[in-house]
Amino acid sequence: MTAPGRRSSTFTRLLRHGFTDASAAEHLLDGVELAPLRDDPVLLDALGATADPDLALQGFVRLLEAQPDATARRELLDTVTAAKPLRDRLLGVLGASAALADHLARHADDWRALVMYESRDLHPGVDEFERGLAGAGDPVALRVAYRRCLLSIAARDVCGTIDVSETAAELADLATATLRAALSLARAAAPEDAALCRLAVIAMGKCGGRELNYVSDVDVIFVGEAVDSADEDKALRAATRLASHLMRICSETTVEGSIWPVDANLRPEGRNGPLVRTLSSHVAYYRRWAKTWEFQALLKARPVAGDLGLGEQYVAALEPLVWQAAERENFVADVQKMRRRVVENIPVAEVDRQLKLGPGGLRDVEFAVQLLQLVHGRADASLRSGTTLSALNALAAGGYVGRADAAQLDAAYRLLRSMEHRIQLFRLRRTHLVPEDDADLRRIGRSLGLRTDPVSGLNREWKRHAGAVRRLHEKLFYRPLLDAVAQLAPGEARLSTQAARERLVALGYADPASALRHLEALASGVSRKAAIQRTLLPVLLGWFADSADPDAGLLNFRKVSDALGRTPWYLRLLRDEGAAAENLARVLSAGRLAPDLLMRAPEAVALLGDGGTGGLGGLGPRGRAHLEQEVLAAVRRADDSAQGVTAARGVRRRELFRTAAADIVGSYGTEAQPVEADQGALVDLVGGAVSDLTAATLAGTLRAVVRGGWGDTLPTRFAIIAMGRFGGHELGYGSDADVLFVHEPRDGVGEREAADAANKVVSEMRRLLQLPSSDPPLLIDADLRPEGRSGPLVRTLKSYGAYYRRWSLVWESHALLRAEAVAGDEDLGRRFIELVDPLRYPADGLGDEAVRDIRRLKARMERERMPRGADPKLHTKLGPGGLSDVEWTVQLMQLRHGAEVPGLRTTRTRRALAAAHEAGLITVDDAATLDEAWVLATRVRNAVMLVRGRAGDTFPSESRELSAVGRYLGYGPGHAGDMLDAYRRTTRRARAVVEELFYGT
Question: 300, 700, 718, 849: which has the fewest C-beta neighbours closer than 10 Å?
Fold first, then answer.
């Protein structure tokens, strides 16, 4: 007897053997049946070897209690004690699966299925499982027989007799036998239907690939044909009834539960399509209508039940189409988009626990392997396996995947699948979530051999392997391309040149031969530069492939690397600063403008680093005051005006690159920074940054010209007034600077001398800003001045006042709405604005005649200025619902109500529109419609300039350029038509508002 307060020796031994509730276990061992065994080390050792000793002992006691009599209980105890194979298998199952313990408690004689241990029992196939199910004459009996077979698979699994891939194959073979048995039951129930048709069951998904889980939907496709001279319609209806009955037999819940759902949604047209089709109907669908993912799914198609001859015909007919899928436009992008969509649909709370669908999960490995199979399986039949691990091994053997990468993925996949199996086996429920409870994690960890610290050990192994999958998933496509050209590891199987070209074409590269030459130049050799670039390129190539022009991205990267590759900070930046490499890849492959700006001064790549801050980091816009300070300082250091303006233009080039890069990164998004959801914010960023930069450039140029010609003081005060989009802080990358020039002679200076000086300043500024140079020119447009091109280029403030009092037309008041002083003499600029305020914000508003004049002018401009051959509906400036429509509508409200509504006294379109809404001049819906159209049209203009490197007011006609504009606007590959449709819809709604508010119709 144990002394009070002291633990028994049995209690201590139970703890040592892994029991967590030793008191409850001791109580169970004290029972009448088990008392003789409580001190038997054989039983305790066997229980301690299970995943959950407490669970195993509870299940064993329940099984004993379920035996019909004392003789049966004694037989079970004697067999367990004497036969180690049975003891390990039975207790192993009871310690891993509460659901199978329940089955054994209900069917107390099924433990005998684990007694036999002949060699044929170690690796049964479909025939053995069919024999195990043969006696089942109804759905309930089929469920019992299925669980009995499942019991034997689980026993071999938990005891390590078979590995995870063999377990998955046996589960698929059992599913095959079950589908055959279910079809036999369905045929027996409707012999007249069976006589009319041939029905083939094609396994898809994990069942088709012989890599099934313990609990999973079994994906199938049905193929039916009429027998002999039977009517085809009647035969298909009969086949549909048989198929439906088969699905119910497997899926419906009975007193013995269900087997698993049979899912036929991978069939043509999914759940909206007929359940059963003829072979010719299947072929016609896949030839004409099937999407890329449907060919990907066919990789695993395998006939398993019914008319196997018809099933083989199905596979033979569709197999050629499967291996042509990689030739489809946007093939890789479609596959990757499908993967991203899966991840995006995971509930946020589950992402970190998802074994199957989450980042670094099973689906990442499967998608990567299937993508490479489709690319290279056309020419290499050895890759045509439906089983993930077999296909991965074949890819490595053929050099399509590096052996080290394949080994890491193989190990990760096996660990993740083993975890999935153990999680599902416990309750026999379909789940792919890692549990959060420590008891569950402990059971799973122990079942995988982690005995010292199973919970933390399991988490550590899981995260390590998931991390390996995440790292390898993307570069799996690209690293072999580098190995093929670098040839640094002798003896390693490599991609052939043809295979490398096929892969590049599939990834979207239009000129694979040139791409391979660039890769060879970047990755060959043993220098530090080549080594770092070999590390970076697998990831960079993926980012290039995600763009509309991967070839340009790779070529531009080679150019930048040739220019900066020997500069230590460049390679260190890309390697060590997380954002820099991805930002560079996005910028280099998004179009011509940003790379052209970068190539003129490659050291600007330093701006792409994260700068140690969040958000845009080094790409964040700099304020006008900061820019002007830098430009003026550079001008002061220059020897003459030409050098000063060159310095100012250099700053402008760098800052244009900064702005373009920030715009691209915000539009494309990166791993660290999602796509900017507020498109208006990107428009404001570009418009404000380019306008501030233009103002600073003009200020610096003015200072340089004055210093070069007159020293510190010009004979006349001089100011530059921004007009148009410049005054509205809405400049685009390719916009001219619309300005007015105003001067005022200093005391004692004659008007002739002052005018000559002012004109010389303007002439010299325009000349220096347009000189041929590595920096982009800045064109100054003064055509909005009084009398237009016929009038003097520069006027005194007094002259402007006289002209506006006597001759000013309504269009000039309209144009002055955008006037803002930006450079030169601040007091003179302020007085000019005070002079024109009464013109642009008339105290009495606009009379009816003035409104009619503005409407006529607008209508004439629409008729006369539209370029010949252009599609008006796609013209961002002059087309219906475009920039001109929105701006003139807003400006008409400013002219009419600016005197009484202070918020309307702004040069900026969006601010004026918001003020008009606040003042009740426009409804919230109409304001939103106009704002959306204006933002979209501006974004399109910016995109065209970024993509083509030159300004344009309409969408490009060349397909790759159009696709690049679409990518900038958030449309995936192949969706340029959707982009154009969306633009037409948006501008059509805006035009309806303009018709009402501007034209009054």
Answer: 849
